[in-house]
Structure formats: structure tokens, C-alpha cells
Amino acid sequence: MLEVLAGRTHEVVSGLCLRMPGWEELHLETTRVTFRPLAPRDIAAYTATEEWRDRAGAYAIQGRGAALVARIEGDYLNVVGLPAALLVRLLAERFPGTYGYG
Questions:
Q1: CATH number of 8's domain
Q2: Which residues pair with 23 in a beta bridge?
Q3: Residue 96 CB partners (closer than 8 Å, separation 6+)
Q4: What is the model's pLDDT at position 69?
Q5: For the chain, what is the domain count?
Q6: Who has greater pLDDT, 64 or 98?
Q7: How confident is the model at residue 56 (pLDDT cuts 50, 70, 90)?
Q8: Which residues form the domain of 19?
Q9: In whole angstroms, what separates CA 102 from the centre of its chain?
Q10: Is 43 in contact with 72 (CB distance < 8 Å)?
Q11: Of 101 and 27, which is predicted with more confidence?
């Protein structure tokens, strides 16, 4: 998988649903991640860390996998696993006195 991602841009897409009686919010968050070109030794060194285990994309951007990345466009936390910026925005819109500044 890392060979396929090397030197290319991929999208990390997460779904988020907030549901309460009387309303529901369904949203997608997309973050574009560009990997730097990777030599076989780069891939071997990263896989030797075993950090990639149990990762949907075979890397952990919040750990040593950050060294594989050249650029990110969008919410970093979406790549980690939760579209936090989207979640906070939706909560602030629904509950401005609790989660927002209003």
C-alpha cells in the first residue's frame, strides 16, 4: 500500500453523523494527503517500526508516518481518525452557548 501511495495524493474521507430527537446532521469530510516519493529503504524503515499495524491506510500520520507526507490539504485530525473541525463547527452551530462563543 505504501508503494502505491508514494509520490501521489490520496483522499481520506470520514463520515460524521450527529443525531438527536428531532434533528440529524450527516456530513462528509475530505482531506487530501500527498506522500513524498519513497525509496524502498524508506518503506522498509517505516514498516520495521510496525506503527502501520491496525491502520486503515497503512500509516499513522500522527507518528513516524508523518515523515512519509509531503503535504496535507484539509483537517489533519480527519486523517488521524475524527474530523474534529467539522464536529466542533456543527456542535457550535447547534449549541452556541455550550460549544461556541455566542
A1: 3.90.950.10
A2: 20
A3: 102
A4: 98
A5: 1
A6: 64
A7: confident
A8: 2-99
A9: 29
A10: no
A11: 27
Q: What digits encode the pLDDT tens for the residues 73-95?
A: 999 999 999 999 999 999 998 88
What cell numbers appear for 2 in the block?
505504501
Distance in angstroms (rounded) separating the CA atoms of residues 33 and 1: 14
Give dist(CA 5, CA 56) in Å, integer.
13
HSE value, Cβ hemisphere, 13 Å, CA-based, for 33: 26
Distance separating alpha carbons of residues 14 and 27, to the nearest angstrom: 8
Q: What residue type is 78 in one-letter code?
A: N
How large is the average pLDDT for residues 2-31?
Answer: 95
CA distance 66 to 12: 15
Amino acid making up residue 43 = I
